[in-house]
């Protein structure tokens, strides 16, 4: 044994080959935390002192290689200066440079995930062999930063600038075939052959059959571009990256800047440019927000796994009541992820629509090469359309997705309960109706909960799992386990009108309606909120949600929270509803929609809409964009604060992710609580006082005032 620690070992193998094996004790994955970085430094000291070594084999003792840096340690850098942050990358850069400069060749066996710093240590090695079950990537731009351990320097010199920029700017995982084609790895091997193939590759280099010196020279020298080529190449790349990333995400374009600035430099100077770029990005609120989203997602996943462990029975057979678009989407997602599902409707037309939805989604996967026709057939065969309850006695969970009408749901749920096992879970996909109220129709309310999917089911990650007054932990646990199996992000919430997402979304729409009442232009509002970061403005979003659905939900909210959600005026949204303008679903709402060549609804403006709403809106007025933002966001933020204070949702982290995954809250802002922390509760208070005349929806809670007085933040 050359070196041994709780993070890694270095062993002398037969043939004078040293094996550096990463195996972080007490953890399920390897990561470059501070302890591992320190151990690697000490291990390399021992390795360099060892005589007669001819080659280095780098391996992992985990099912994955290395997932990257320990992000939890990185958060301590936020709020620091650029000069304070820059040394963060220094120690491990020295480690990787030492590996790259060993007086003998190195080869790495990449099993599982090699992400971020995990891939960067591979790039420092001379040869890379990848398992057919592995994935590699540099996802740092998804966290608002850039690779800081040589990724921006070595990867372009290995696979070329254009390809390297795309890898880093998108942060996408790369499969073995793509990595081999790009030249990022030298060979691909089956998992059981990975070690042997990597050792054979290393031995070939030791024997002089593979030239590792030339590879090192390429990684240490300038990029092979003359000034003219570089000017043209970087101009094109910058334009493309800027267009795709948008102005709110600075990291992708900074990657290009760093590569361009360092293109003619030596390795050491280029690494210094990279460290500057890393430190500059790490000081931005975008990095803080995106790292926060990552950590919140880990927390949410941990909570969901915790619920899954409590599940006393596996969900092996599911059913959905009500076919159509929503039922078909649920059936598709369940079958796609391996849980057979019965799809029941009261008429054949509904079943045909549900099957058509599933077939359409599967056909797209086949067309994109993500599945074979045979696989598509197997999945479709696991969706069992039926007009009866035959076989429901064998179902483990039933998701009711019929029309959003309390009387209809009561009848359907009560009827269904008679046909299922007394231990089966019954869940409702209701978006607004109280779970406690719906449970009144049931003999076994402890087995009943809400399972609220967001439309379109296949695309929206969030599922709200709603606990009624009598819902048991067992029902919640099984439902969360089913959501996990479907590949969804489950947030467990307590029952109230609108639950979590709709409860806070409709105060946002309330702010929109008041702006229109006071003379704002709905197109201007949409533009401001889209520039602020929403994927679509409130008028467009209401069209997509469905104005009929929106009016129904707004009435539920008004009844539940009359002090702040009951308007004292007729809104433009209500006028749209009365004129049968329901949005995208019937081609006309605030905007009008016609299908483009790909069959997708294209938004157009009909100036007649302004005449339609003229009686309920004020004289056209141009509002300050900051006033528009605060009038829209304050009611949502304050209502979400109430939800946390009332224990509707467990933590600000879960609340923030629910809005990100449920309605597309701008990720670069981190969530509604992260946004409030960023702008400061003093600014929120000032805006609240400015718009106090608009009603209680703009009034801070007592707890928010207490936090402001004590200097507290949500994170």
TrEMBL record:
GO terms for biological process: fatty acid beta-oxidation. InterPro entries: 3-OHacyl-CoA_DH_CS (IPR006180), 3-OHacyl-CoA_DH_NAD-bd (IPR006176), 3HC_DH_C (IPR006108), 6-PGluconate_DH-like_C_sf (IPR008927), ClpP/crotonase-like_dom_sf (IPR029045), Enoyl-CoA_hydra/iso (IPR001753), FA_oxidation_alpha_subunit (IPR050136), FadB (IPR012799). Keywords: Fatty acid metabolism, Isomerase, Lipid degradation, Lipid metabolism, Lyase, Multifunctional enzyme, NAD, Oxidoreductase. The keyword NADP does not apply. Residues 498-593, 629-708 form the 3-hydroxyacyl-CoA dehydrogenase C-terminal domain. Residues 318-496 form the 3-hydroxyacyl-CoA dehydrogenase NAD binding domain. The keyword Secreted does not apply. Its EC number is 4.2.1.17. Pathway: Lipid metabolism; fatty acid beta-oxidation. PANTHER family: TRIFUNCTIONAL ENZYME SUBUNIT ALPHA (PTHR43612), TRIFUNCTIONAL ENZYME SUBUNIT ALPHA, MITOCHONDRIAL (PTHR43612:SF3). In the central section; belongs to the 3-hydroxyacyl-CoA dehydrogenase family. This is enoyl-CoA hydratase. The lineage of its organism: Bacteria, Pseudomonadati, Pseudomonadota, Gammaproteobacteria, Cellvibrionales.
